[in-house]
Design goal:
Blueprint (H helix, E strand, L loop, with lengths): L16 H23 L19 H83 L19 H12 L4 E2 L8 E2 L1 H10 L9 H4 L4 E3 L9 E5 L4 E9 L2 E7 L3 E6 L7 E4 L2
Parallel strand pairs: 1-2
Antiparallel strand pairs: 3-8, 4-5, 4-8, 5-6, 6-7
Helix pairs in contact: 2-3, 3-4
Amino acid sequence: MSHTAHIPSHRKPRRSASKLSLRAGVAGGVLSTVAVAGAAGPAQAEPVTETIEMPALNGDLSAGLSSAVAASAEATQQIALDTELQAAEDAAAAKAAKDAKKAKQEAERKAEAERKAEERARAEAQERANRSSERTTLSASGSGSAIGSDEGGSVSAPATGSAAAIIAFARAQVGDAYVMGGTGPNSWDCSGLVQAAYRQAGIDLPRVSGAQSSMGTSVSLDNLQPGDILYWGSRSGSYHVAIYSGGGMFIGAQNPGTGVVERPLDYDPPSGAVRLL
Protein backbone atom coordinates (compact mmCIF):
# COMPACT_ATOMS: atom_id res chain seq x y z
CA MET A 1 0.00 0.00 0.00
CA SER A 2 1.19 3.43 -0.82
CA HIS A 3 2.03 5.80 1.99
CA THR A 4 -0.37 8.31 0.49
CA ALA A 5 -3.24 5.92 0.11
CA HIS A 6 -4.98 7.25 3.32
CA ILE A 7 -4.33 10.92 2.64
CA PRO A 8 -7.51 12.50 1.29
CA SER A 9 -7.21 14.28 -1.97
CA HIS A 10 -7.51 18.12 -1.93
CA ARG A 11 -9.15 18.23 -5.33
CA LYS A 12 -12.87 19.03 -5.52
CA PRO A 13 -14.96 16.02 -6.20
CA ARG A 14 -16.32 15.77 -9.62
CA ARG A 15 -19.99 16.59 -10.02
CA SER A 16 -22.19 14.11 -11.64
CA ALA A 17 -23.08 14.50 -15.24
CA SER A 18 -26.76 14.87 -14.52
CA LYS A 19 -26.25 17.90 -12.25
CA LEU A 20 -23.97 19.57 -14.76
CA SER A 21 -26.47 19.01 -17.52
CA LEU A 22 -29.30 20.52 -15.45
CA ARG A 23 -27.32 23.65 -14.57
CA ALA A 24 -26.30 24.09 -18.18
CA GLY A 25 -29.90 23.93 -19.26
CA VAL A 26 -31.04 26.52 -16.80
CA ALA A 27 -28.22 28.88 -17.72
CA GLY A 28 -28.96 28.46 -21.35
CA GLY A 29 -32.60 29.28 -20.86
CA VAL A 30 -31.77 32.45 -19.00
CA LEU A 31 -29.31 33.58 -21.62
CA SER A 32 -31.85 32.87 -24.34
CA THR A 33 -34.43 34.99 -22.59
CA VAL A 34 -31.96 37.87 -22.22
CA ALA A 35 -30.97 37.58 -25.83
CA VAL A 36 -34.57 37.69 -27.04
CA ALA A 37 -35.33 40.73 -24.83
CA GLY A 38 -32.24 42.53 -26.18
CA ALA A 39 -33.22 41.82 -29.76
CA ALA A 40 -36.67 43.24 -29.17
CA GLY A 41 -35.22 46.69 -28.11
CA PRO A 42 -35.45 48.59 -24.89
CA ALA A 43 -38.62 48.12 -22.97
CA GLN A 44 -41.00 51.09 -22.54
CA ALA A 45 -41.40 51.97 -18.84
CA GLU A 46 -45.01 51.89 -17.79
CA PRO A 47 -46.02 54.67 -15.27
CA VAL A 48 -47.03 53.28 -11.96
CA THR A 49 -50.18 54.74 -10.59
CA GLU A 50 -51.07 53.76 -7.08
CA THR A 51 -54.23 54.89 -5.31
CA ILE A 52 -54.00 55.06 -1.53
CA GLU A 53 -57.33 54.57 0.00
CA MET A 54 -57.72 56.44 3.32
CA PRO A 55 -59.61 54.70 5.99
CA ALA A 56 -63.17 55.99 6.23
CA LEU A 57 -64.25 57.66 9.49
CA ASN A 58 -67.03 55.85 11.15
CA GLY A 59 -70.24 57.69 12.15
CA ASP A 60 -69.45 58.08 15.85
CA LEU A 61 -66.03 59.66 15.26
CA SER A 62 -67.45 62.15 12.70
CA ALA A 63 -70.30 63.19 15.00
CA GLY A 64 -67.89 63.63 17.92
CA LEU A 65 -65.60 65.87 15.86
CA SER A 66 -68.53 68.05 14.73
CA SER A 67 -69.74 68.40 18.30
CA ALA A 68 -66.27 69.44 19.48
CA VAL A 69 -66.00 72.10 16.76
CA ALA A 70 -69.47 73.44 17.57
CA ALA A 71 -68.70 73.53 21.31
CA SER A 72 -65.45 75.41 20.68
CA ALA A 73 -67.24 78.00 18.52
CA GLU A 74 -69.96 78.43 21.13
CA ALA A 75 -67.39 78.87 23.89
CA THR A 76 -65.55 81.53 21.85
CA GLN A 77 -68.80 83.40 21.19
CA GLN A 78 -69.75 83.24 24.88
CA ILE A 79 -66.36 84.71 25.87
CA ALA A 80 -66.86 87.56 23.40
CA LEU A 81 -70.37 88.24 24.78
CA ASP A 82 -69.10 88.17 28.37
CA THR A 83 -66.32 90.62 27.51
CA GLU A 84 -68.75 92.96 25.77
CA LEU A 85 -71.19 92.76 28.70
CA GLN A 86 -68.45 93.51 31.22
CA ALA A 87 -67.31 96.54 29.20
CA ALA A 88 -70.90 97.82 29.08
CA GLU A 89 -71.30 97.32 32.84
CA ASP A 90 -68.03 99.16 33.54
CA ALA A 91 -69.10 102.08 31.33
CA ALA A 92 -72.51 102.24 33.01
CA ALA A 93 -70.90 102.21 36.47
CA ALA A 94 -68.50 105.02 35.52
CA LYS A 95 -71.35 107.12 34.12
CA ALA A 96 -73.48 106.51 37.21
CA ALA A 97 -70.61 107.60 39.47
CA LYS A 98 -70.06 110.75 37.41
CA ASP A 99 -73.78 111.59 37.44
CA ALA A 100 -73.96 110.99 41.20
CA LYS A 101 -71.00 113.31 41.80
CA LYS A 102 -72.54 116.00 39.64
CA ALA A 103 -75.92 115.65 41.37
CA LYS A 104 -74.24 115.91 44.78
CA GLN A 105 -72.40 119.07 43.78
CA GLU A 106 -75.60 120.59 42.41
CA ALA A 107 -77.49 119.69 45.59
CA GLU A 108 -74.76 121.25 47.73
CA ARG A 109 -74.79 124.39 45.58
CA LYS A 110 -78.58 124.70 45.89
CA ALA A 111 -78.45 124.08 49.63
CA GLU A 112 -75.82 126.81 50.03
CA ALA A 113 -77.85 129.22 47.91
CA GLU A 114 -80.98 128.48 49.94
CA ARG A 115 -79.08 128.97 53.19
CA LYS A 116 -77.78 132.35 52.06
CA ALA A 117 -81.25 133.35 50.83
CA GLU A 118 -82.73 132.44 54.21
CA GLU A 119 -80.06 134.48 55.99
CA ARG A 120 -80.78 137.49 53.76
CA ALA A 121 -84.52 137.08 54.31
CA ARG A 122 -84.06 136.97 58.10
CA ALA A 123 -81.79 140.02 58.01
CA GLU A 124 -84.24 141.96 55.83
CA ALA A 125 -87.15 140.97 58.07
CA GLN A 126 -85.25 142.15 61.13
CA GLU A 127 -84.34 145.40 59.41
CA ARG A 128 -87.96 145.99 58.42
CA ALA A 129 -89.06 145.27 61.97
CA ASN A 130 -86.51 147.75 63.29
CA ARG A 131 -87.64 150.43 60.84
CA SER A 132 -91.28 149.78 61.64
CA SER A 133 -90.54 150.18 65.35
CA GLU A 134 -88.64 153.37 64.66
CA ARG A 135 -91.48 154.74 62.56
CA THR A 136 -93.97 153.98 65.31
CA THR A 137 -91.81 155.77 67.84
CA LEU A 138 -91.32 158.78 65.58
CA SER A 139 -95.01 158.98 64.77
CA ALA A 140 -95.89 158.87 68.45
CA SER A 141 -93.41 161.56 69.41
CA GLY A 142 -94.22 163.75 66.41
CA SER A 143 -90.89 165.44 66.62
CA GLY A 144 -87.21 164.89 66.01
CA SER A 145 -83.99 166.81 66.24
CA ALA A 146 -80.87 167.26 64.20
CA ILE A 147 -78.44 169.43 66.06
CA GLY A 148 -75.03 169.98 64.59
CA SER A 149 -72.78 172.22 62.64
CA ASP A 150 -73.91 173.36 59.19
CA GLU A 151 -71.54 173.44 56.27
CA GLY A 152 -71.10 177.17 56.80
CA GLY A 153 -70.12 176.69 60.44
CA SER A 154 -73.36 177.87 62.07
CA VAL A 155 -75.27 175.70 64.50
CA SER A 156 -78.58 174.33 63.22
CA ALA A 157 -81.56 174.66 65.46
CA PRO A 158 -83.44 171.41 66.18
CA ALA A 159 -86.08 170.62 63.58
CA THR A 160 -89.53 171.37 64.84
CA GLY A 161 -93.07 171.26 63.57
CA SER A 162 -93.45 170.34 59.94
CA ALA A 163 -89.69 170.07 59.34
CA ALA A 164 -89.36 167.56 62.20
CA ALA A 165 -92.14 165.39 60.76
CA ILE A 166 -90.55 165.50 57.28
CA ILE A 167 -87.11 164.57 58.56
CA ALA A 168 -88.41 161.89 60.92
CA PHE A 169 -90.23 160.16 58.09
CA ALA A 170 -87.25 160.40 55.72
CA ARG A 171 -84.81 159.13 58.36
CA ALA A 172 -87.08 156.15 59.09
CA GLN A 173 -86.65 155.03 55.46
CA VAL A 174 -82.83 154.86 55.66
CA GLY A 175 -81.78 151.41 54.48
CA ASP A 176 -84.65 150.98 52.04
CA ALA A 177 -83.86 150.06 48.46
CA TYR A 178 -83.55 152.51 45.60
CA VAL A 179 -85.87 151.59 42.74
CA MET A 180 -86.53 153.86 39.79
CA GLY A 181 -90.15 155.01 40.06
CA GLY A 182 -90.42 153.70 43.64
CA THR A 183 -92.83 155.47 45.97
CA GLY A 184 -92.62 153.17 49.02
CA PRO A 185 -93.25 151.70 51.37
CA ASN A 186 -89.92 149.80 51.20
CA SER A 187 -88.37 151.11 47.98
CA TRP A 188 -88.01 154.64 46.65
CA ASP A 189 -86.50 156.86 44.06
CA CYS A 190 -85.25 160.33 45.04
CA SER A 191 -88.38 162.36 44.25
CA GLY A 192 -90.70 159.60 45.53
CA LEU A 193 -89.07 159.81 48.96
CA VAL A 194 -89.20 163.64 49.07
CA GLN A 195 -92.84 163.65 47.99
CA ALA A 196 -93.83 161.11 50.67
CA ALA A 197 -91.85 162.93 53.39
CA TYR A 198 -93.47 166.29 52.64
CA ARG A 199 -96.87 164.64 52.69
CA GLN A 200 -96.29 164.10 56.44
CA ALA A 201 -96.39 167.89 56.77
CA GLY A 202 -99.54 168.17 54.67
CA ILE A 203 -97.68 169.48 51.60
CA ASP A 204 -98.36 167.92 48.19
CA LEU A 205 -95.36 168.07 45.88
CA PRO A 206 -95.11 167.22 42.17
CA ARG A 207 -93.87 163.70 41.44
CA VAL A 208 -90.62 164.48 39.57
CA SER A 209 -87.44 166.13 40.82
CA GLY A 210 -87.38 168.98 38.26
CA ALA A 211 -90.84 170.17 39.29
CA GLN A 212 -90.06 169.81 43.01
CA SER A 213 -86.93 171.96 42.81
CA SER A 214 -88.87 174.66 40.96
CA MET A 215 -91.19 175.22 43.93
CA GLY A 216 -90.68 177.45 46.98
CA THR A 217 -87.88 179.98 47.37
CA SER A 218 -84.29 179.50 46.37
CA VAL A 219 -81.85 179.58 49.32
CA SER A 220 -78.08 179.60 49.65
CA LEU A 221 -76.26 176.44 50.64
CA ASP A 222 -74.65 178.51 53.43
CA ASN A 223 -78.06 179.28 54.93
CA LEU A 224 -79.79 175.90 54.97
CA GLN A 225 -82.49 174.89 57.43
CA PRO A 226 -83.74 171.35 58.24
CA GLY A 227 -86.44 170.37 55.77
CA ASP A 228 -85.05 172.34 52.80
CA ILE A 229 -85.07 170.48 49.49
CA LEU A 230 -81.61 170.03 47.96
CA TYR A 231 -81.26 169.58 44.21
CA TRP A 232 -78.55 168.54 41.75
CA GLY A 233 -78.42 170.16 38.32
CA SER A 234 -80.29 173.36 37.46
CA ARG A 235 -83.25 174.44 39.57
CA SER A 236 -85.76 174.03 36.76
CA GLY A 237 -84.06 170.96 35.32
CA SER A 238 -82.69 169.09 38.33
CA TYR A 239 -82.04 165.36 38.00
CA HIS A 240 -81.86 164.54 41.72
CA VAL A 241 -83.33 165.80 45.00
CA ALA A 242 -82.90 165.10 48.71
CA ILE A 243 -83.86 166.59 52.11
CA TYR A 244 -81.51 168.60 54.30
CA SER A 245 -81.68 167.03 57.79
CA GLY A 246 -79.49 169.58 59.64
CA GLY A 247 -75.97 169.46 60.99
CA GLY A 248 -74.48 169.43 57.47
CA MET A 249 -76.33 166.18 56.62
CA PHE A 250 -78.92 165.18 54.04
CA ILE A 251 -81.26 162.23 53.55
CA GLY A 252 -81.97 160.89 50.07
CA ALA A 253 -82.60 157.86 47.93
CA GLN A 254 -79.28 158.10 46.18
CA ASN A 255 -78.86 155.18 43.78
CA PRO A 256 -79.35 151.39 43.45
CA GLY A 257 -75.98 150.81 45.08
CA THR A 258 -76.62 152.75 48.31
CA GLY A 259 -80.41 152.88 48.61
CA VAL A 260 -81.76 155.47 51.08
CA VAL A 261 -78.92 157.00 53.11
CA GLU A 262 -78.12 159.91 55.41
CA ARG A 263 -74.77 161.40 54.44
CA PRO A 264 -72.72 164.62 54.86
CA LEU A 265 -73.17 167.28 52.20
CA ASP A 266 -69.59 166.86 51.05
CA TYR A 267 -70.35 163.21 50.19
CA ASP A 268 -72.22 164.55 47.16
CA PRO A 269 -72.37 168.37 47.18
CA PRO A 270 -75.73 169.65 45.85
CA SER A 271 -76.12 172.37 43.26
CA GLY A 272 -78.68 174.40 45.23
CA ALA A 273 -81.67 174.34 47.58
CA VAL A 274 -85.23 175.56 47.88
CA ARG A 275 -87.40 176.25 50.93
CA LEU A 276 -91.10 175.48 51.17
CA LEU A 277 -91.64 175.73 54.97
